[in-house]
Amino acid sequence: MPGYGLPEGSKGLLPWSWAEQRLKKSHNYWITTVTPTTVKLTTVKPDASPHTMVVWGLWQDGRFLFSTGSKSRKARNLAQNQNCIVCTEHANEAVIVEGKAEIADVAARRKFLPTYERKYKFDMGSMKDDILSMKEPIFAVRPRLVFGLWEKEFIGKSTRWKFD
Question: What is the pTM of this model?
Answer without folding.
Answer: 0.88
